[in-house]
Design a protein that fits this description.
Elements (H helix, E strand, L loop, with lengths): L5 H10 L2 E3 L5 H8 L7 E4 L4 E4 L1 H6 L4 H16 L9 H21 L5 H5 L10 H19 L5
Helix pairs in contact: 4-5, 4-7, 5-7
Length: 153
Amino acid sequence: MQKIDDKILKLADDIGAKVYYNLDNIEYFERIVYSLDYHAAFYHKNNYNIYMNKKIIAENNLNISFVLLHEIGHFSGKKVNRRMGDDTEYGYQLEELTASYCAYYLGKSLGLDYRKEMKEHEDLFKFPDWKKAKFAGWLASKFLIEKVKGKVQ
């Protein structure tokens, strides 16, 4: 089973993100997630926690560190007052792509290369406002890194 990169766990702690990443009991996890179809990980926008199911991540051969950074990308929305994706297809796609770009740029700032993982999200680049998502992801990652460095309160 993969291990989450220590730099990412430290980043999550430094920015105040609560991460529950040992959830491999799918019944318990499904009660938390309610009716979400994708059970690998999610950011709960009501309690600001990140939940990860290592078993599902492993079964789907996902990079667990990138998955956590992606969820931190969602977490960043409340930090930068980003309007989180609404219930429309457009809002959902914009938020997902923004979180992926934030994950990519956070990884880059930590010396981690996630070009492969971004390539796996290629279908999202067909999204008409992908440049808007790219900028929002970069901006969120910059804010979080500056916060960790103590430059932002």
